[in-house]
Amino acid sequence: MLVTLILLAGVSSTLALDNGLALTPPMGWLTWERFRCITDCKKYPNECISENLIKRTADRMVTDGYLDAGYEYLGIDDCWLEKTRGPDGRMVPDKERFPNGMKAIADYIHAKGLKFGMYEDYGNLTCAGYPGVLGNERLDIQTFVDWEIDYLKLDGCYIEPKEMDAGYPSFGKLLNETGRSILYSCSWPAYQEDAKMLPDYGSIAEHCNMWRNWDDIEDSWASLTKIMDWFGDNQERLAKHAGPGHWNDPDMLLIGNFGLTVDQARVQMAVWSILAAPLLMSVDLDTIRPEFKEILLNKDIIAVNQDPLGKQGLRVWKKTDRGVRSRLEIWSRSLHDGSHALAFVSQRDDGIPYAANFSAEDMQMAQGEYEVQDLYKDEGVRQWNSEQDFEVRINPSGVKFYKFIPKTSRAASQSSSKSESSSVFDPVVSTVLNLS
Ligand SMILES: *[C@@H]1O[C@H](CO)[C@@H](O)[C@H](O)[C@H]1NC(C)=O
Ligand SMILES: *[C@@H]1O[C@H](CO)[C@@H](O)[C@H](O)[C@H]1NC(C)=O
Ligand SMILES: *[C@@H]1O[C@H](CO)[C@@H](O)[C@H](O)[C@H]1NC(C)=O
Question: pTM of the full predicted structure?
């Protein structure tokens, strides 16, 4: 039995996409969540998918500190194409909105020290009805290479989900053969989950740097918590496939837009960091309010997201008092230095912050003494001994996000043996399975 476990663990770590990219979860900015398919530049000159939007965002990413914080990819999502291909069969960027073509955009982005992301769709059409790559794969990949892109999101509209098990890998092989390093973001499992198929995440991790697992995120707390609930409920299938070079993707950050309060935005940043999720902003960087910008630029939280161990965290505890909207949760991630990031999330809507005591068992923490830092810096540093309860007070639809740093050798050695254990047979995973 032990031999089998070791063999399986070995296999899982070697079969992963090995293009040297995304060794930590990709960080950047993408048009879709905030700017969708706005194409009318006369009516909405600042919001339409255009050269203007991309250039002004590139400027902001550099001058306002986002690039320094790690947000390096700047990506155009759907709605950048003309509706028909050119006479040579090539994709043509919208002539009014991208009058200088895509190579000019790439040059602008690269000159700023950023990387350039593009979007296409594996099917006949993109989701918004523009030409897809099906039947033109080689030509389109060559075109992307000519434009010097660094990141490609390949969507999955207008193609049967069952075609994807072969289609996404063969497209990835063509990408690889160009010799250009292009981060490969797949929508493959999202369509298969939606079709109630069971995606082969082993194969997906072997062929993609990141993959959208499930529903598109929408600009609301309801959508955010639905996605969090789904990732928690399915973590046993998903978490073990994440690691350096290959990540689950719960979708873009809503932070700074219309639908989330500051507390709710803090929840997304905390849980996305526990999940080792790509951090892809989608917000107007010219008008974002300072309190949201501060969340996006929180260095201690970004460090949790980018932890080099690359181990996806888990929802380790949950309790529902009176219906789904009154849930309390603990999310925990083991970090490379033996410490743990713990997010205490409240989905409650009572009018006051909710206070509760948690035991070391609730938090799945090894015995010992810890220094506890509040990553949002509302509270000072605390000392905590695992024999005591840990008291937390959480705002309605909010989070408290702490880093637990072991102080005693016992806690440290237990923590580090935990983090070194195989991601396939993790003691934390098995405890969670017993609970749920
Ligand atoms: C894609 O287009 C081709 C040619 O029109 C058609 O035969 C095929 O059925 C289409 N595939 C899908 C999945 O719509
Ligand atoms: C292509 O794949 C090989 C084998 O996995 C890898 O070593 C190489 O870095 C890849 N090249 C590119 C450009 O992605
Ligand atoms: C948590 O436990 C401490 C120590 O026993 C106690 O003083 C405090 O009132 C408790 N808090 C809650 C919210 O139960």
Answer: 0.92
